[in-house]
Design a protein that fits this description.
Layout (H helix, E strand, L loop, with lengths): L1 E5 L22 H13 L12 E5 L4 E4 L2 H11 L4 E10 L3 E12 L2 E14 L2 E2 L4 H9 L4 H16 L2 H18 L2 H13 L3 H8 L13
Helix pairs in contact: 4-5, 5-6, 6-7
Length: 220
């Protein structure tokens, strides 16, 4: 069984992989710990799932989706109500959260059950969050430059979380676009994100492009 959860350990055994934040990565350890606790006990820590979290659960012969924290919890409660043990095999950080591979074992009506699973989660703070809603709204609004808005959201949220890898990636795209199109304010945004990424030399290289009230136009 594999599951994809978007909107991101008590009793955990056999942990391999890294859950604490290394340099340039947001700390997803609380979300990973809360997720494992929920899988093992059925009790989700407060705030584990954002209210508008989206879950896309793929099973061998069917697929289940949920569009709120309540629906996600209900899917688990109805389909897998028995407590058990989760052994984590691997946790990998992504630009927006983490992926986790694990196996579960539990008893039900005198029988022992086992399955291997994988979850991908987007995380803000300590919560597993929905990241598709802004893209869906932009598509519905037919915004020609919606991709820029979404990239800016990624960049500024990464700046708030200390995710230097994502800051650098968005800064590079912003710089390339600003240079090609001559958009000074985007160039200033790129410089800001380079600073957040710890790349001061890249930021200094863009300062000469600033003119007028461009710094006053930056998001705060």
């Amino acid at each position: 069984m594999s599951a994809e959860i978007r909107a991101g350990m008590t009793g955990m055994t056999g942990m391999t992989g890294m859950t604490t934040a290394g340099r340039g990565r947001r700390d997803t350890s609380a979300a990973v710990a809360g997720l494992i606790r929920w899988l093992e006990t059925g009790s989700a820590p407060a705030g584990l799932f954002a209210p508008d979290v989206f879950c896309d659960l793929s099973l061998p012969q069917w697929r289940v989706q949920a569009a709120s924290a309540e629906e996600v919890l209900a899917i688990r409660a109805e389909g897998h109500p028995c407590p058990g043990k989760a052994r984590v095999e691997r946790v990998e950080h992504t630009g927006r959260g983490f992926t986790i591979e694990f196996e579960e074992r539990w008893d039900n009506e005198g029988q022992r059950w086992y399955c291997r699973e994988m979850i991908r989660a987007d995380v803000m703070g300590d919560s597993i969050v929905e990241r598709r809603r802004p893209a869906k709204a932009a598509q519905q609004a037919s915004l020609a430059d919606s991709w820029m808005v979404l990239k800016a959201m990624d960049g500024y949220s990464a700046a708030q979380c200390g995710d230097t890898d994502t800051c650098a990636a968005v800064a590079a795209e912003a710089e390339a676009f600003a240079s090609a199109e001559g958009v000074t304010v985007v160039c200033a945004e790129a410089a800001f994100l380079w600073v957040c990424a710890g790349k001061l030399d890249r930021a200094r290289a863009l300062v000469h492009t600033f003119r007028g009230p461009v710094l006053d136009e930056l998001s705060r």
